[in-house]
Amino acid sequence: MKKIKILCAIATFATALIVGSCDTTSFLSGLSSSSKKPTLNFDKVSIKSLDMEGITFNCNYSVSNPYSVGISLANVVADISCNDSKLTTINANEGVSISANKSAANTFDFKVPYDSILNFAKTYKENDKLPFSVKGNVSLDKLPVISTLTLPFSKEFNVPVFKPKFSLSSPKLVMPSITEIASALVKGGKTNALKAASLAKSLVTGGEVDDSLLEGIDLNMKLNFDLNVENEGGSAWKYALNSCGIKTDGQSDLIALDTADDTTIESSSGTIPLSATLNTLTAGKFIAKLLNKSGANPTFTLDSGLSFPNLSYAPDLPLAYSKELPLSSITRKSE
Question: What letter would DSSP give residue 328?
Answer without folding.
Answer: G
